[in-house]
Amino acid sequence: MTRIYLIRHGQASFAADNYDQLSDLGIKQAGILGAYLQQKNITPDVTIIGGMKRHRQTAEHSLETMRLPLNVIEDSRWNEYDHQNILAQYNSAFATPKGIRSFLASEKEPREAFQKHFVAAMEQWTNTCNSKQYNESWTQFTTRLIAAFNNLIENHQGKTILVYSSGGAISIIASLLLGLPLEQFIRINGTLVNAGITKAVARGKDKDILLSTLNEHHMFEQLGDKKLITYT
Q: Which helix (H) or strand (E) holds 75?
């Protein structure tokens, strides 16, 4: 059986100058994730990470907890969409982390207000398909992820695979496996917790890959600390 565990990175540094960096809480989440994987006796034959720092850091801290070496394959096709560029094309005020911080400081309910604008920016992006106004178009984003996933299946049949990636990337694959319009991926994306696990399986050669679990995160819930459940 092929088992693919798609793992979202731990909490990144929202609104900081460098988002692509695990927060202290993100590091803690990665450690808890590693302990959970070890408890379930999940030992990877192959470990793949996207090309972002938060992907590597999550892998480092979880694998360290599992007492496994950092023996990973980096594949930038598992990178997240360029959220800063997407926001900038929607509203120039969101073009920099400083601009986002200024917006958040002006709102009574900053997270809710920003989420509304973020969803609108994403809808604009997905509706433009091949527009050259973006660093990476919607079509380019979905094409590279589906290719990365298909290559994973072809090259590692019958293996247990960990993939450390991001919420948007994982949501595209989940939408694909569920037969949903890919443009609706943002609905799944908004529910994925940091360091959560989405699992896909195939029961034999040339068998369809099926979604087994989505957004598994009870390893955080069972600890009784709501602060461990984050979405950035």
A: none
In this structure, the chain runs to a length of 232
Which two structure tokens, joined as six digits, stand for 67? 């007492």
For residues 130 and 147, give the distance between their C-alpha atoms in angstroms, rounded to a whole number. 17
Using the structure block, give the residue that is written with the tokens 């989505």: 214
CA distances from 113 to 23, 98, 168 (A): 23, 16, 20
Helix (H, G, I), strand (E, B) or coil at 214: strand
For tokens 């980096």, name the residue: 74
Euclidean distance between the first and the last CA atom of the chain, given in angstroms as a whole number = 32
Closest Cα partner for 121 from 105, 107, 134, 104?
Answer: 134
Q: Indicate the pTM of the whole model.
A: 0.93
Measured distance CA(27)–CA(25) in Å, rounded = 5
pLDDT digits 0-9 by tens, 118-162? 999 999 999 987 778 899 999 999 999 999 999 999 999 999 999
Q: How far is CA 156 from CA 25, 60, 147, in A?
A: 33, 22, 14
The structural domains of the chain, with segments of one domain joined by +, span 2-80+136-228, 82-135
CATH class of residue range 2-80+136-228: alpha beta
Q: Are 4 and 161 in contact (CB under 8 A)?
A: yes
Pairwise CA distance, residues 14 & 231, whole Å: 10
